[in-house]
Amino acid sequence: MQISPQNVVGRDQLIEQIWRKLASKSLRFTAERRIGKTTVMKKMLAEPKPGTSLLFLDLEKAESPHRFTEVLLTEMKPLLSARQKAAGWLENFLTEIEGVEVAGVIKIPERNRIGWKGMLEKAFDRVCSHNSDTLIVLLLDELPYMLQKIAAHERSAGTPDHAALEMLDTLRAMRHEHANLRMIFAGSVGLHHVLSDLRGTEYASQPVNDMPPVEIGPLATADAVLLCERLLKTEGVEVSSVDRGLLASELAALTDRVPFYLERVVACLAELEVPVSVQHAREIVRQHLTDDNDAWEMEHFRSRLRIYYHGSSEDVNGRPIPNASLAGAILDILATAPRPQTIDEVWSAMKARMALDNRDQIIQLLKSLAQDHYLTSDSEKRYAFRFPLIRQWWVLAQGISQ
Ligand SMILES: Nc1ncnc2c1ncn2[C@@H]1O[C@H](COP(=O)(O)OP(=O)(O)OP(=O)(O)O)[C@@H](O)[C@H]1O
Ligand SMILES: [Mg+2]
Q1: 328/270 same-domain check
Q2: Which atom of ligand 1 is least distant from the CA of 187?
Q3: Do residue 154 and residue 168 come from a single domain?
Q4: Model-wide pTM > 0.90
Q5: 30 and 138 share a domain?
Q6: Residues 262, 285: Cα–Cα separation, whole Å
Q7: Contact 168, 210 (CB under 8 A)
Q8: Which of helix, strand or coil describes residue 54?
Q9: Is 3 in the pocket of ligand 1 (CB under 6 A)?
Q10: Using one digit for the tens of pLDDT, what is the confidence trace for 237-292?
Q11: Considering only CA atoms, which residue is closest to atom 6 of ligand 1?
């Protein structure tokens, strides 16, 4: 569930930066799941800059280019019908594409004369040229997930063509054609994985190389503390007198300043119905990290390795080792290391566990694990877990000791 924009804490500086970048280019958000990407988009939508028009599209349920077009046209409707020179453009367009409007939602038949590409081209052309003094910003949330679904749908229908990549190429062509059009891509699935799966080896397109990444991290410490204080108050949590000055900052640290976890810990504190202490907060976090029912869905951090890191590498005897196993072993090493590790230290530790001779493969995996927000590297190129909370979960879930 999304919170209302006035309850969003922080993110102002980040949003200012995003607006500055949008003046000249489109962007893609990169971030760990649940960090607050959708919230940033929703706040931008609620507080647009003068001279801009924002459209937010939740693409989680769009499983085809056709459905994407319907969602887009529905959102574009106010812009398509605004400032008409010749009235009735939208009505004529709907007739041309054999579309209808049902309770404010545009529906189009699966196939029509001009197809989804033609519809997108016409709609963007109309919107951008008839609002030429406005910066049109499309906020496309869960776009990678939609692309995965389009590809999966085609595979299961036995028609493996390139609709998902064609869609990305079409969107890219639109960005290049219209100087007043910008897009932001976001999603909980890594776009780089989806692209490499879709591209395979034969498709040469680079559909997002004009969209620089914007990293969305945890809240700033002061904002996380502020959010804690607010949540403790709204949930009516009574804080024990000894920990009154401490609890909010301790909670911010325990949850890595990620609002999603913060909210959940405070909700559990509220259920205790006794004056709560820092110790209670620690116990709640620990309990969630060890809970086999996994209410925080931490297992995702382990299971997605098998999905993202497919393929295998050979050991010195030519035996295949799944890349997911290698990635897991690297995480085991870094989760239990007393300090950040150089590439060479990771390589030595990996060789001590497995009969390996491909150092480059380990370097590439470290890089991917950093792109996927498991790891971070410092200016000396030493790797460590990015989020202490995920590291702690990894240690517990793998049954290894620190
Ligand atoms: N800046 C913020 N201030 C207050 N609460 C926030 C903030 N950002 C996120 N939240 C809370 O955390 C929840 C999760 O955030 P959000 O849905 O934006 O994350 P996300 O990165 O889009 O997640 P996903 O990866 O699942 O798409 C929100 O519903 C909201 O309750
Ligand atoms: Mg989201």
Answers
A1: no
A2: 27
A3: yes
A4: yes
A5: yes
A6: 10
A7: no
A8: strand
A9: yes
A10: 998 888 888 999 999 999 999 999 999 999 999 999 889 999 999 999 999 999 99
A11: 259
